[in-house]
Design brief:
alpha/beta; Potassium Channel Kv1.1, Chain A; 5-stranded mixed beta sheet
Length: 337
């Protein structure tokens, strides 16, 4: 047997049968994967049954696996799990047996496989501390990474990662078309109602910014000392950034990009003496941006699971300030803007 501390690679290039002793003196052998790419894990059935309600039933007297896994001539019991991923199950078993020593790389693909098996075997509670540590160090820099983290957060029942990933989608991803939403549902196995809630939150945040930027646009289009060349240049900047006409605001950009574009326009227009009061304009755009960023908060996993968002009861069961996560939200007016 190979000791649990050893690094065991499982994949298409692996030998026909790899063996890993996860639990010294274990009484159960899990045969993971299809023939040709299998790995055999020697584990403790007691630990698996305590950690997983699914394994507790599966290895009980009422299921075929429980009967077929009866020990023979002092050998450990054996259970075949051909549909499971060998590498992911190796990680899961080693985490449950507290024998995983080497750190895990920030590999969202592997993390997603582990999350899938966690959901399959109802291990969210048992893997909770490990998931809390692993997910908090995962960074979102692209839409794909945030969607992968969102899937892991749901499968591992981690509220903070759910909040972080949905906040990235609200703030950094432009409005999604129905076709794009359908592709995400299929590729990432996410709930359509959840994506609709994210889009609604995004729409509220952009609309909040849109209402406040209207007054800024009026300052650009009505300067005290009209200069035709400067005026035309400013309007061109507005059109290119989808700030004018106001109805196009946010149609092709994320809220984060809109805010950056607005601040750039303020600086460019101000340098050409187009503003009636450049200091006041800069203050106005900063206030608008801050209010919109407060609106662009992430969603709450508890509310999602309880169905509160689908019943239009808001984003948090506390109906206020994200108390589910202990994150205080300040700066909203009476209309939530």
């Amino acid at each position: 047997m190979v000791q649990a501390e050893a690094t065991t690679k499982v994949g298409k290039s692996s030998p026909l049968s790899a063996q890993v002793e996860v639990a010294c003196g274990g009484d159960l052998e899990l045969i993971i994967g299809e023939e040709g790419v299998q790995v055999k894990l020697l584990v403790s059935s007691t630990i698996l049954k305590l950690a997983s309600p699914v394994f507790a039933v599966l290895l009980g007297p009422n299921f075929k696996e429980g009967h077929d896994s009866a020990p023979t001539a002092g050998l450990p019991k054996s259970v075949c799990l051909p549909d499971d991923d060998p590498e992911a199950m190796l990680w899961v078993c080693q985490i449950l047996h507290y024998v995983r020593k080497e750190p895990m790389k920030a590999d969202l693909a592997l993390l997603g496989k582990i999350a899938t098996h966690c959901d399959k075997y109802d291990l969210a509670y048992a893997l909770g501390p490990w998931a809390e540590y692993r997910l908090q160090v995962v960074e979102c820099h692209t839409m794909e990474e945030s969607l992968s983290l969102l899937y892991c957060a749901i499968m591992l029942a981690n509220n903070k990662a759910f909040h972080k990933s949905t906040k990235y989608l609200v703030l950094h991803v432009a409005r999604l078309t129905p076709l794009a939403m359908l592709a995400i549902i299929q590729d990432y196995k996410l709930d359509g109602q959840l994506l609709a809630s994210i889009e609604a939150k995004k729409e509220q945040s952009i609309r909040c910014f849109q209402l406040r930027v209207e007054s800024i646009i009026s300052m650009i289009t009505a300067p005290i000392i009209p200069q035709k060349e400067t005026r035309q240049h400013t309007m061109l900047l507005l059109r290119r950034a989808n700030f004018w006409p106001v109805s196009s605001l946010g149609s092709h950009a994320s809220l984060h990009d809109l805010i950056n574009d607005a601040r750039a326009i303020v600086g460019c227009a101000g340098s050409r003496e187009c503003w009636c009061d450049s200091v006041e304009a800069e203050k106005t755009i900063n206030v608008a941006a801050d209010k919109a960023l407060v609106r662009a908060d992430g969603l709450c996993l508890t509310c999602y699971k309880e169905g509160a968002m689908s019943r239009n009861q808001g984003n948090c069961l506390a109906r206020d300030a994200r108390e589910c996560l202990g994150i205080q939200t300040e700066g909203l007016d009476e209309h939530g803007m």
